[in-house]
UniProtKB/TrEMBL annotation:
<dbReference type="GO" id="GO:0015833">
    <property type="term" value="P:peptide transport"/>
</dbReference>
<dbReference type="InterPro" id="IPR039424">
    <property type="entry name" value="SBP_5"/>
</dbReference>
<dbReference type="InterPro" id="IPR000914">
    <property type="entry name" value="SBP_5_dom"/>
</dbReference>
<dbReference type="GO" id="GO:0043190">
    <property type="term" value="C:ATP-binding cassette (ABC) transporter complex"/>
</dbReference>
<dbReference type="GO" id="GO:0042597">
    <property type="term" value="C:periplasmic space"/>
</dbReference>
<keyword id="KW-0732">Signal</keyword>
<feature type="signal peptide">
    <location>
        <begin position="1"/>
        <end position="18"/>
    </location>
</feature>
<dbReference type="InterPro" id="IPR030678">
    <property type="entry name" value="Peptide/Ni-bd"/>
</dbReference>
<protein>
    <submittedName>
        <fullName>Extracellular solute-binding protein, family 5</fullName>
    </submittedName>
</protein>
<dbReference type="GO" id="GO:1904680">
    <property type="term" value="F:peptide transmembrane transporter activity"/>
</dbReference>
<feature type="domain" description="Solute-binding protein family 5">
    <location>
        <begin position="82"/>
        <end position="517"/>
    </location>
</feature>
<dbReference type="Pfam" id="PF00496">
    <property type="entry name" value="SBP_bac_5"/>
</dbReference>
Amino acid sequence: MKKILVFLMVVFAVALFAADPNVLVDATIGEPDTLDPHLAYDTASGEVIYQVYENLVQYDGSSLNKFLPRLAAEVPSVENGLIRDGGKTYVFPIRKGVKFHNGNDLTPEDVEYSFERGLLYNPAGGPVWMLWYSIFGVWSVEEFVEEVSGKSYDELFDENGNPLPGAEEVFQKVYEEVDKAIEVDGDNVVFHLRRPYGPFLNVIAQGGHWGAILDKEWCIEQGLWDGQPTTWWKWHNQRKEDSPLYQNAMGTGPYKFVEWDRAQQKVILEANENYWKEPAKIKKVVIWGIDEYSTRKAMLEKGDADIAYIPTQYLDQVRGNPDIEIIEGLPTLSITVLAFNWSIREDSKYIGSGKLDGNGIPVDFFNDVHARKAIAHVIYYDALINDVLKGFGKRIPTALPEGLLGFDPSLPLYDFNLIKARQELMQAWNGEAWKKGFKFSVAYNLGNEARQRTAEMVKMYLEMLNPKIKVDVVGLQWPTFLDATKRGELPIFILGWLADYPDPDNFIFTYYDSKGDYSSRQGKNFQVFVSTPRPELGGKSLDDLIEEAAAETDAAKRAELYAKVQKFVVENAISVPLYQPIGVRVHRKWLKGWYPNAMRPGDDYYAYWFEGKE
């Protein structure tokens, strides 16, 4: 009955849009996590931001290494003299005649403010580490504070969070260094990198919303950083919901933000008729998070949705429909991994009693390599790929997708093997895990059947091995799921990673470095493990090897370093790679203009038009 009511509510609501050929309805799953470009780090958020904001440069169609100018009037290159000093200086002439949605003119000062605000805001778990690493060679503003002052960031504040004497001078110094790295020079914005960094244009290209350009004046009016040298700390690491951009967006892009209806998981955009290029052909876009697959399917078949997320296991249900186009075999730079939290929050509701007493697990349960390996052996990988994904995925040995430097198909793959799983469990926690049993929860984001089935496999096969083992499977809304991972509450989390930029460091660093984006979700014990020097790594830590590989300019040497990293990762079951997706796209045939780009977080609605939709 509940599913029927949800279906009727959605069908009634979508009827308001479906009859209008100027409206595009995209029936997807979930909803954005935030609309703040410097905090958003998921594709649902990125897809909205992509339409509303613009970056300095964009990818040229489907290419991942050719660029076109966007808000910059030219793409910097050595040939045109806009890349200088051996690759350490990038000059961006800012396009004239561009207006924000509120009518304000785009200026070089807006570009400077956008990057400086991002660097100083630098929210934990967000994407701004890429800007810090690209420009300064460090990973965060906290690390930069310590470099500048010799003190940790926390040492600048008293127990109530108020700055101590001398802190203001540090804030000023940090700002000055950031300001010198990004400066306005007439109609240009000039970036001064500490060292050459080849992927810099990839990092800030359209699709990487951390490079989106904000209106300085409007942002300050909304309550963002006021632009003053010694006040930025007040906004640093601000809570997601406290950001004025959490549910608000205003840029220069082809679409204006109208509404984010949290109750219906629905975002509405309308065409920017004053766009500096031609206005969008489709005048309104509705991005609708509809977790129930049958509802999305019905909307697509009736023409009430122009685009729909159809899980690969259900493709045959829409195949053969003369009004629906299915595009298969698309390359992706994405992977899905089951990762472990080695130091779960003590107040987590997903670990039962919090003890190894048969009714829970201790917070460091997955600090034991045998516990991790047991999970690796209870996943029926072939069934996941063949039955759930319908073949639209392939096995990978680590969290590095095929197609990038360092991918090594000769590395061993974890196998589905209940005998091995039982042997590992009997060794975990000196045999106590097997003897006493344990209980914990595996969560997944609602609407993602592949992740749901993976969680159910963990439950089914662990419980089959030992009746003293109990696993609960919990479905969560996307923002709730993300927040739970960021807070370190989930013992196991299943997350994908779409490349921020097409380089192996973006995957290897993210999953395996103690400073990577997923590091905090994997806990302190993980961070200690990968940052500790080890004899098998020649006296270096895994962090050392990862960072050495990122800085290496010789491709062959880089590949050798990544081979060492991945061998260590596999041997220690640091995480469990599930699959690399093979892309598929489903939409109504009347939708024209779609093109693939592995770096785009969703659709490019500006490129679309309808042909024959009435």
